Amino acid sequence: AEKTDVVVIGAGLAGLNAALLLAENGCRVTVLEAGRRIGGRVFTSTEIEGSPEHGASQIGRSYARVLDRCEALGVKLAQGSNIYDNYAISLDGQLIRPGQWENHPLNKTVGAERGVVPFALGSYYLAKTYPWNTMDGWASPEALANYDVSEADYLRRVGASSAAIDLVARGYGDGDLDAISALTLMQEMGRAKFEGKGVPTSAKQDRFQQASFLSYRILGGSSRLTDAMADALKGAVLTGKQVTAIDMTETGATVTCGDGSSYKADYVISALPFTALRKVAVTPALTGGQADAVKLMPYSGQNQVWLRVKAPYWEQDGIEGSMWTDGPVSMLRQSIAPDGSRDSAVAITSGVKGDALDRIPAKERGEYVLSELARMRPSTKGKLEVLGVFSWKLDPLIHGCRHGYHPGQMKAFRPTMAQPHARMHFAGEHTRLMEVGMESAMETGERAALEILDRI
Ligand SMILES: Cc1cc2nc3c(=O)[nH]c(=O)nc-3n(C[C@H](O)[C@H](O)[C@H](O)COP(=O)(O)OP(=O)(O)OC[C@H]3O[C@@H](n4cnc5c(N)ncnc54)[C@H](O)[C@@H]3O)c2cc1C
């Protein structure tokens, strides 16, 4: 077996950033990636016309690590597409303009809630009641002790009406707010509240508008960044290496791949989502809350149907092109390019509704989604064409789009799940503390690299 100082498992942003930092600090590093493609959840499609982004696309203005790497590697940025335009509402089979919502007969919410569109209600309550004045307050012992309750319980606690809670549940696409820890959502909110500071918001704005501080995108697609990071590692990234076992002793670690090859190192970084790590045999075995986290942490999916807009259906019915729905498709999202063109859209579905779509064979899924969109919004009939489909739950290596916690799991998992275990360290967006999205993956790669540099 080849020997290096550190083997990093997984060539997503977290693994690549860890490997680059270690290499920049004089370590010999090998990165093992199961797929033939670099980047994980950074994935610019090469199959679908227009090269849409299956994963990360929007880069926040405060993503210091991402922006820094882009600059250092010559990866060019451009202004992000606008995905935050107003969303129409399709509820109980009726099509409603966001401006009509407050006084609409289907709006059964009460008091100040009435002015908040259904898909913004969850974040409206979270932003209003976020109990801490720090970004990582959600991770404090006090938070773990008192707030690791279901989102439904939390919303009741802060006075949301049952009609509002029902709408929030429909918005998540899985309908089960009892299964989501409120702290999962507060983790996002902690960051968003501070990132959005200074941007005036009002309850009349939807979630997307409230978060619509300007963003960047990568010219040529997000994969340009992860490809450039891998290139900078000069041959240290090996693809087609699906890790199946990590064996550690007092003096070193051996990492074995499905193709029979093995790699020796002093230390190992797992930059795998827990959905993937749970399939790897680790010796000595993980224990306690850490073992439970790897085995049980839930990941939600996301189903995408990419569409060409053949004619402006929004001009026919005079309603916003994007639409939130309580039907079998979570949302129709139109992205408005910086030049104002609106010729593509994506139907995105998450939660159990996404799982239901996953069960429809890929060839039929797109047409099914088109027929459901036409039922909810007749003006789309004949004006949309399927370009391709993709599902993160069906991705054979990642098995999901993002991690979450059931009530009680944050308390059980957080204290130990990212702690070093023997010679193994943990990175990946699920182990993040302060950041969100791509920046969170970078943050965790940095932490794991620094932990190892401290030990050498
Ligand atoms: C639909 C979607 C939209 C998003 N949009 C945005 C956005 O607009 N802005 C933003 O900032 N963030 C966004 N994100 C979040 C961002 O993409 C992630 O936070 C980040 O890419 C996660 O990186 P990671 O390195 O933690 O994990 P991953 O990217 O999942 O990397 C894990 C890697 O491990 C590999 N692997 C799995 N099993 C094995 C094995 N046994 N052996 C070796 N390798 C293995 C995988 O193939 C993968 O390459 C989005 C994510 C999704 C899914």
From TrEMBL:
Gene3D superfamilies: FAD/NAD(P)-binding domain. Its cofactor is FAD. Pfam families: Amino_oxidase (PF01593). It comes from the Bacteria. FAD binds at E33, A34, V243, E429. One of its GO terms (molecular function) is oxidoreductase activity. The keyword Nucleus does not apply. SUPFAM superfamilies: FAD-linked reductases, C-terminal domain, FAD/NAD(P)-binding domain. Residues 13-453 form the Amine oxidase domain. Transmembrane segments: none annotated. InterPro entries: Amino_oxidase, FAD/NAD-bd_sf, Flavin_amine_oxidase, Flavin_MAO, TAT_signal. Keywords: Oxidoreductase, Signal. PANTHER family: AMINE OXIDASE (PTHR43563), AMINE OXIDASE [FLAVIN-CONTAINING] B (PTHR43563:SF1). Belongs to the flavin monoamine oxidase family. This is Amine oxidase domain-containing protein.
